[in-house]
Amino acid sequence: MELERITLFVEGKLGQDTTGHDLNHVRRVENVALKIAEQEKMALEEITIIRAAVLLHDVIDEKLFDDVEKAKQEVRSILQESGATAEEIDIIEDTIENMSYSKNLTKKRKLTKIGKVVQDADRIDAIGAIGIARTFYYGGSKGHAMYDETAPIQAEDLDEKSYRKSTNVVNHFYEKLLRLEDSMNTETGKKLAKSRTEFMKKYLEQLAREIRGEV
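Above: the chain sequence. Below: its structure as tokens.
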């Protein structure tokens, strides 16, 4: 599989992104995915599929692209042009179509071992210091309130529709980011998520004090 060809395709799709789903995000996710794959003792051919899935995981995201079905067709085409086998294409498509947080709100989607590694790596980049930066960056790009008087949506009331309607940046930490630690699939993912989640909790405590004017 020609990863260079896939990389050029992704650069054309995400090279001008200003929502936090840019090429730097892709590179960070790849670095984490490779670290997890090493700990999981994944085979070289599995790592190639992981890298391809990481490259492509945001190019069918409905937050970024209006015509998702067209985007899926383009993904299949670039994979075929890059020499991916039918089995590799199936694994990559299954991964990027089922790994998102919103798709797993009401029912956890089953992923392959490769899919679990990619999902963990992507979620790791949503938390910690970089996660905080990306959250406010994305919220600002969409015109969302930094914070307001609305309460976070409770877990039992959160589904894909209500999740998409949330427009409060601070609430997003409670509706998604602080919950990601418990969703990790791999031991490496769990360890990374734990430290990053603790960092976010401390940040939110400080933020709340500053909002109240206590410090």
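The chain has a mean pLDDT of 95.
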